What we know:
The complex is a heterodimer of chains A (186) and B (284). Chain A contains nine helices and two strands. Chain A starts with a helix and ends with a helix. A two-stranded antiparallel ribbon of chain A has the order 1-2. In chain A, helix 1 (3-27) packs antiparallel against helix 2 and helix 6 (127-137) packs across helix 8 (154-172). Chain A is mainly alpha-helical and 186 residues long. By secondary structure, chain B is an alpha+beta fold. Helix content of chain B is 16%, strand content 25%. Chain B has three helices and 13 strands. In chain B, a hairpin with a 6-residue loop joins strand 10 and strand 11 (264-268). The longest helix of chain B is centred in the N-terminal third of the chain and has 21 residues, at 13-33. Residues 54-104 and 154-158 of chain B have low confidence and may be disordered. Chains A and B meet through helix 1, helix 2, helix 5, helix 6 and helix 8 of A and helix 1 and helix 2 of B.
Amino acid sequence: MAPWEQELAALAEHRGRALVGYAYVLCGDQRYAEDLVQDALVKVFARLRRREGTGGGTGVHPLDDHGGTTEAYVRRAILTLYLDEYRRRRRWTGVKHLVATDDRARGPESGATARADVAAALARLAPRERACVVLRYFEDLTVPQIAEALGLAQGTVKRYLADATATLRGVLQVPHQTTTIGEAAR
Amino acid sequence: MSTNHARDDWADAQLGETLHRVLDGMAGQAARTTGIGTAVGSVRTRVRRRRAAKKAGLGVTTLAVAGGLVVGGSALVPQDPVILPQPAGTPTPSGTPTPSETADGAALGVIEDGYQPGWLEGTGLVCGMAVADLPAADAALEPAGPLQDDPQVGAGTGVETPMWRIPTRLAPSGTESGVLMGPTLLWAQDGRVVDVGLDGTEDPVPVAGDAGTVDRDATDWRHTTCAPGDPVEGGMTSYGTDLPAGEYEVRVYYQLWSEDFADVRLVLSEPVTVTLDTAGDVAQ
C-alpha cells in the first residue's frame, strides 16, 4: 500500500467522523457533508507526494505544502468546496429545511432543540456569514485567521459575524419557543 | 479549544458560549450517524484515478489562465510552415522568457530541471532527464501523420498559444491490459527532456487483450510543462512558458496503467526531428 493510501486510511478512520461534523455545520445536510468530505479527501490526496528524503515511508504532503497537517488541508478543502459549490449552484436554498428529524420532537429546553433552532437560523445566513460563524465558534479561529482563510478583509469578517450573530441571537434568546425546524426555516 | 470568542464585541459571552456548544452538538450528531468509514474504498479509487490522470496543466481553467499569460501568442490559424532550422544553443538561465527573448535552442534554460508534473507521478519521467534514460521506443506506437498546428485543438478555451495535433496508432501486444492515458508529446533537446506535453486524459482508454489498435490524436501546446508557473485557483499549476524556437526530438507517448492503477509504464514512439520557429510553426 502506498504511503498516501496508508495516510488516507488512517485519516478516514480516526478523523473521518470529525470531518463530517465540520462539513455538516458548514452545509447543514448530512449527505452533502459526506460528499464534501469525500471530495475534499480526493482533492487533497490526489495532490500528495512523498516528502523529500523520506525513503518511501510515511510522510506525504500536498504539492503546494505551506506547512500544516493533512487534516488541516482537508478542512480547508471542505470549506473551499462548500463555498465554491454554493457559488456554482446556489444549492443553499435547497438545504434550508434539512435538519435532523429527531430534533423536532424534543422538548424546547433540550440541547437538541437549541441545535435545531440554530440550524434553522444558520440556514438563513449567507454562506460566507455561515462560514465565518463556523470558523469563529466551531473552529475557534481568530478574526485575522478567518480573514486569511476566506480571503476577506478583517472588517468584512467582523461585519459578517455581527450580522450573523444578530440573526442567531434572535433565535437563541427565545427561551421556550416550540417552533419546529421546518417552520423556523420559512 | 480556547474560548476567546468571549471577547468578541459583536456578541456577548453567553451567546458565544451557546453557539460554541450548539455547533459542537450539531457536529457530534452528524459524526455519530455518518457512514463515512465505508466510503474509503471509493475515495481511494478516485484518488488513484486522479493521480493517474491528473490534468494539472490542461484543465480549461488553467488553459485560459496560462493562455492569458502568453506574451505575443501566435494565432491558431495554420499557415504554411516556414522551416527555420536552428542550431542547438547553450542553455541560458531560466526566468520568464518569451519567444522573442529566448535564444534559439535554449529550451534547457527555460525549464525546471528535475520537475515532474503531478500527473506523471510514478512514471519516472522527469523534466531534464537524459533521453538515454527513457524507456526504449515501442514499435507498437507510431505517428500516423505529420505534426500540425490545429486550430480546432483547444478551441473555446481561450488559449493563445499554438496547439498541435498528430494522429497516432497503437497496436497493443494482445497480452497487455490496463488503462491508457494520453497520448501527448515528449520534447527533447540536446539529449534532455524539455517538455512532457499535456496529460489531457479526460477519457482514459481501457485496453484488454486483443482489442485491436488504438487510434488517437496526440495533442500538445507550445507551453512547456517543464516550466511550472504560479498555482492558480484550485491548486492547479499554470504553465505559460513557451518552448523556444529550435530543433527538437519529439516522441509520442502514452502512460499505460495497470487496471488497479498500482503500476505504470511509458509507451513511447521512435523520435522524429521537428523544427519549431519563433512563430510557433512546426516542420518535420
